Each structure stands twice: as structure tokens, then as C-alpha cells.
Amino acid sequence: MRKNVTPMENEYVRHQEHMHKSSSKRKKRLVRRLAVFFVLMLAISGFLISTLISRAQVLEDKQTEKAQLEKKLEDLKDKQSALEEEIVKLNDDEYIAKLARRDYFLSDEGEIIFNIPEPDKEKEEEVSY
């Protein structure tokens, strides 16, 4: 029951076909532009996210290093204050005499120095069992 239909060949039909083809072409170009734009935005977003992650890692590493250096600074400040105290003590003649007696076994007039050996740790361990 199909009837043969003859297409109309007038200006209106040609104009409508031309409009349909140009509309179809515009839609294809729009889809292509949107696809390119989407891919471009995806690439830029990926780059920005990877940069953000790497910068966050660098920041974390720097904070760890800063904490370690601050601890080292505190240790050095403690050592400096101990050394400054030692300088003050070394200006005292009595302290120097005490060090000389202890480290170099020097004595005052009339003093006798006795060297008492320290107990061995191995012997103490054997006794404790």
C-alpha cells in the first residue's frame, strides 16, 4: 500500500532542505566545539589538580623539615647555654682546681690521692643472677 510520492521541486522545499542541512551542520560544529572545550577543560583541570597535590606534598615535607630544624635549634640553644655556663665556671679558680684534681689526679699540698677502681658491670650481672 505504498504510494509513490514525488518530491516537490519548488523554491520553498529547496529552502527548507537548505535550512535543515545548515542547521544540521551547525549542530555538528557545536557538538565538536563543545567536545574540544570539554577535553581542554579536562586537561587543564587535571594539570591543576596534579599541581595542587604536588604542592601539598612539598608543603608537608617543608613543614616536617621545619619541625626538625626547630627541634635542632632548641637543642643547639640548650647546648649554647650549657657552654656559656661552662665558660662562667671556667673563670672560677676553685672550679678549675676541682677539674684538675678529678681529671688529672693533681693534688694540693699534703693531699694523698687514692684511685678506687669502679666495679665491673660483668661481675655485677653475674651476682644478680
- Topology pattern, helix = H, strand = E: HHH
Estimate the global geometry from the Cα principal axes.
Answer: rod-shaped
Radius of gyration: 46 Å
- The overall strand count is 0
Low-confidence stretches: none
Tell me, rounded to a whole number, the average pLDDT.
Answer: 87
How helical, in percent, are the residues? Answer: over 70%
Alpha-beta classification = mainly alpha
Please work out how many helical segments DSSP would assign: 3
Reported for the largest beta sheet, the result is:
none
How far the N terminus sits from the C terminus, by CA atoms, comes to 115 Å
* Proportion of residues in β-strands: under 5%
Your description of this structure?
- With 129 residues, the protein is mainly α.
- The chain is built from 3 helices and no strands.
- The mean pLDDT is 87.
Keywords:
single chain, 129 residues, mainly alpha, 78% helix
Secondary-structure map:
Elements: H1 11-90, H2 93-104, H3 121-128
Concise structural overview:
With 129 residues, the protein is mostly helical. The chain has helices spanning 11-90, 93-104, 121-128.
